[in-house]
Amino acid sequence: MATVEVKERKTVSMAVDPSTVFETGKFEVTSITVKTGIFSASKPLFIFTPTNPGSYPVILFLHGFCCMGSFYSDLLNLIASHGYVIALPQLYVMPTTSEMQEIKSASEVIGWLPSGLDPLLPTNVKGDISKLSLVGHSRGGKTAFSLALGYGRPSLPFSAVIGIDPVAGTKCFQPEPHILNPISDPFNISAPITVIGTGLGPMSASPVTCPCAPKGFNHVAFFKKCKPTCAHFVTVDYGHMDILNDNPPGITGLFTNIACKNGKGPRELMRKCCSGLVIASLKAFVENDESFLNAIYVDPSIAPVDLNPVVLIYKATSSP
User: Could you give the angle at which helices 267-285 and 291-298 cross, rounded to 10 degrees?
Assistant: First the structure.
């Protein structure tokens, strides 16, 4: 019967500097804006893709509450430059929709990917749908976990699930689905999981605002329900919206800047850190190269911002 093993902090021997996951990758990247109805797309999309010919794993990225997809362009260009095709659907704009409708819309996009994605990509570039991962920020993180749990009946399996400061509600408002209840029951998710949290997410930006990632409904609660293989990283000095571009435009962008407690350090470092953790996780979980993720676990100081805690738990091999 399989058992759980906690990865020991052993020296990792690598031919490549592990800190390279936190920098721009080797692939040239282009971004594509897709309107609803193009190749039967059910939602507007932003696509970030390498231009170099090849087949690349696909990421479905799910935006956070009150966020426009364009607010994530700096982060997603970094990730795509390491050899990933990213589809980011704009699932709704303010005023918001229900979370169940958001999940349904995301599932429709998943059903569209096999036929709709490749025709939009550069010549000789293909998205490998057999290596499809879910990455979601904030409420989009909850949507990612919900899809992985089978809500919305997604038509494709997932190779990995990554939540960036996922949020499932507040003490006063807990919308369906109630995926954190009961907290003692682990998620029934077979894919490996990484949860990235923020140290400032549970703090209020002002005396009249609420925390954007409140205790009991944030990354800590999500990770408590994760089964191996899983990882947990917390960026101590940064806040819930610090993965966004520096100055998102418009009233919506202004709202994202003032609604949540922000870190004092440059957002560029937070974006580099989160992109690197996503890339290292996907290399381990999708491409079977654990060296980068292990190296970060062994020496978190290679990340551009402070990480604490750092947890990495692998599922042990089964024995008779």
Answer: 130
Q: Which domain holds residue 86?
A: 4-315
Domain count within the chain: 1
Beta bridge partners of 45: 34, 89
Nearest CA-CA partner of 134 in 119, 122, 115, 151: 151
Tens digit of each residue's pLDDT (9 = 90 or more) over 160-204: 999 999 999 887 788 899 999 999 999 999 999 999 999 999 999
- Measured between its terminal Cα atoms, the distance across the chain in Å is 6
Q: Which residues are catalytic?
A: 138, 165, 240
Determine the Cα–Cα distance for residues 244 and 240; give it in Å rounded to an integer.
9
Asked if 236 contacts 203 with a C-beta cutoff of 8 angstroms, the reply is no
Residue 27 lies in a domain: yes
> Other C-beta atoms within 10 Å of 132: how many?
24
Q: CB–CB of 138/167 below 8 Å?
A: yes
Greater confidence, 106 or 7?
A: 106
CA distances (Å), origin 163, targets 59, 88, 210? 12, 15, 21
Residue 320 falls inside a structural domain: no
What CATH code is carried by the domain that includes residue 116?
3.40.50.1820
Site of tokens 């994760």: 226
